[in-house]
Design brief:
Layout (H helix, E strand, L loop, with lengths): L1 H12 L17 E7 L7 E7 L5 E9 L7 E11 L2 E7 L5 E6 L5 E8 L3 E11 L2 E12 L9 E13 L5 E7 L5 E13 L3 H7 L13 E10 L5 E5 L3 E2 L5 E6 L2 E10 L1
Antiparallel strand pairs: 1-2, 1-17, 2-3, 3-4, 4-5, 5-6, 6-7, 7-8, 8-9, 9-10, 10-11, 11-12, 12-13, 13-14, 15-16, 16-17
């Protein structure tokens, strides 16, 4: 069960050396997120971000205590690798699940591929840019046609895609999801506060997209999302509130589909 849990965790939060993933200038980040917990009673998880001397993210660690209602402890570490100070790959602590990045001639992220056991492709996303902003992300999955341990046995199949509208502040304003048949599935419209999003830098590296966390690409924190289902016409609205410290950074909030509490920062 532990092995399966770590695989799921890795594919949820990760995204060996290539080029760039839109690195945010440290000069614009007076404070960087160091850690948070999901439960202040100690029965949840603690998340930590590690930085090197150049303040590049080198790893993230999730440590669970009593997650299954007993004294079981589960720890998962994700390592980040760079080429010329630019993120190039991510792998879990066992170095079994790896995500590799590829870039276009302008140095913008163009492709990200997830592998099991280092070489078995499982998922790929292709990014399209407009005016220096991500405009469309296409996802494909891999179907096995032969031996399970042979990378050549896996064939890439187009799956679905999303279109993103990013506003002048750098916030994701609208996201549209489409099926493989180009049918509009749903539309998300977002609203934000005016405070810095502490996860923006990390998510730009981790981003899996298609995880309902695309808003973490934004400069500010999502406060409201209105989702319209194109098939049924149903509209749902979710509101999010945050507590902030004196510098305007969130002390707690709702990120990654869970509460982030007791958020700690490294400030200049």
């Amino acid at each position: 069960m532990k092995t399966l849990f770590l695989i799921i965790l890795t594919f949820t939060f990760i995204a060996c050396k290539d080029k760039e993933v839109d690195k945010t200038s440290l000069e614009n980040e007076p404070c960087m997120l160091l850690s948070y917990v999901t439960d202040t009673t100690g029965s949840g998880a603690k998340f930590e971000i590690n930085y090197d001397k150049q303040n590049l993210i080198t790893g993230t660690t999730y440590a669970y205590t009593g997650y299954f209602g007993d004294t079981t402890k589960i720890k998962s570490t994700i390592s980040y690798y760079y080429n010329e100070d630019k993120p190039s790959s991510i792998s879990n602590s066992e170095n079994e699940n790896v995500t590799r990045f590829e870039y276009n001639n302008e140095g913008l992220l163009s492709q990200k591929t997830w592998y099991e056991k280092k070489t078995i492709p499982r998922q790929r996303i292709n990014l399209e840019w407009s005016g220096g902003k991500i405009a469309r992300v296409k996802r494909s999955l891999f179907e096995r046609t032969g031996a399970a341990d042979d990378p050549k046995s896996y064939v890439e199949k187009a799956h679905d895609y999303i279109e993103l509208e990013i506003d002048a502040k750098g916030n994701l304003a609208t996201l549209k999801r489409y099926s493989t048949k180009n049918e509009l599935i749903s539309t998300n419209a977002y609203e934000y506060d005016n405070n810095p999003n502490p996860f923006a830098r990390l998510y730009k590296i981790q981003a899996a997209f298609f995880d309902d966390q695309e808003h973490l690409l934004s400069t500010n924190n999502r406060t409201k999302v209105t989702t319209t289902n194109s098939m049924s016409g149903k509209v749902s609205v979710l509101d999010y509130k945050f507590n902030y410290d004196a510098a305007g950074f969130p002390k707690d909030g709702f990120y990654m589909n869970q509460r982030a509490l007791a958020m700690q920062y490294k400030c200049k």
